[in-house]
Write a structure and sequence with these properties.
The protein is α/β, with parallel strands linked by helices. The chain has two domains: about 120 residues, ATPase, nucleotide binding domain (Nucleotidyltransferase, domain 5); about 110 residues, 2-Layer Sandwich (Nucleotidyltransferase, domain 5), CATH 3.30.420. It has seven helices and 16 strands. The strands form four sheets. Strands 1, 2, 3, 4, 5, 6 and 9 form a seven-stranded mixed β-sheet that branches. The protein has a five-stranded mixed β-sheet with strand order 12-11-10-15-16, with helices on one face. Helix 1 crosses helix 2 and helix 3 crosses helix 7.
Amino acid sequence: MTDSSTSAKDSAGPRAFGVDVGGSGIKGGIVDLTTGMLVGERYKVLTPQPATPEAVSRGVAEVVGHFNWDGPVGITLPGVITGGTMRTAANIDKGWIGTNTYDLFAKDLGGRDLSVVNDADAAGMAEDAHGAGRGVDGVVMLLTFGTGIGSAILVNGTLVPNTELGHLIVGKKEAEHQASSRVKDEKGWSYKKWAKKVSKVLDEYEALFWPSLFIAGGGISRKADKWIPHLTNETKVVPAALQNTAGIVGAAMAVDRGLQP
């Protein structure tokens, strides 16, 4: 399926290809690296169930093949990746743990340049360069509020990969066990009550990292007007700007920069 969101069809800037692997869909497209916009439409296939490494790799190849793209490809995955190996697996088959991602994708994508990065890291890179964090100096933190809390830290545009700040203990619980949007829904909290929990977590992140800006992502960021005004932490919090293209854009940026965490 195609989606014409955020495109730059007449762009002539340098390009790379990004693929964002999620729990429900694998979506990708050609990215103008100058503007951070898609060149034409994105293409999406359903994430196979079960989402085994081999099945997902075939899905990624299908997305890339849709565009007849034969250049470098950046790929996001929902997990920690170090040395090219998947260390955790969130919303994806546990068979990914221990998989060498570069060997895997090379089987279906050939000998082209590849970059495989954490999905929150990719979104953070895109938001920092082309979205809500553009032009902000110092430490910029993207936090995605969903079933857990994903995180990305950038220092003057340079990514600190594989931060898992949702698992940081704040008080007596992990941050995501008290301030994810999943907890809000399960508890039936109002936005105002949930914002108090989020503020407590952000206070802790501020004390540790002294960020210049927090960028709030995840589906609940689309309702930012209902909860961001209730936050009491000191650092400014703004909603993510790129929404469903951030992972694709960040993946393309990663392969352009040669990132292989």
